[in-house]
Amino acid sequence: MSxxxxxxxxxxxxxxxxxxxxxxxxxxxVIATLVGYSxxxxxxxxxxQCTPLKAVAVLSGSSDxxxxxxxxxxxxxxxxxxxxxxxxxxxxxxxxxxxxHVHELGDATDGCMSSGSHYNPLKFNHGAPSDHKRHVGDxxxxxxxxxxxxxxxxxDRLLSLRGPFSILGRTVVVHEGTDDLGKGNYSDSxxxxxxxxxxxxxxxGIAA
Length: 208
Prior knowledge:
alpha+beta; four-stranded antiparallel beta sheet; oxidoreductase; transmembrane helix; SOD_Cu/Zn_/chaperone
């Protein structure tokens, strides 16, 4: 008697039925995935839409130096643009250059001294704003006129109001001396630019 089984026997039909069910479930899963992506909000599958931001810091200190500094960052498509820093600072020495930096902390419990060091999340040496490697908070010098007033507006490529290196909640500081931009021969040229003490400062907060 032949032991060959019919290709249309119960066992073969069971295997075919099982394979058909597996194929159906795989197809259903693929369709569900595609439909899910088509219905999912665009912001969840592409980079989040960029929103322009503004910030402000009101500066004061133990000296007569005071002022207001504004920060604004727009958008280039989904990406953030460079940050614009502008403001007016009074009470400076006439026709002087004074170090101008963002420091790491927003702590004003001990005046400007409790704001910590320059904001430097990338752990580079101090430098000029144009240097490829520098502290994120290195903004060079502001220059006063013959009346001791500095009015300024410039853009910076590293400073940001968003993301992991945001400066919001940190402190902007005007120093008593000139920043040598890391090019001097002083022991602190590569850490502070030998810019001296802290004349005035203000915590950076979100603006209307």
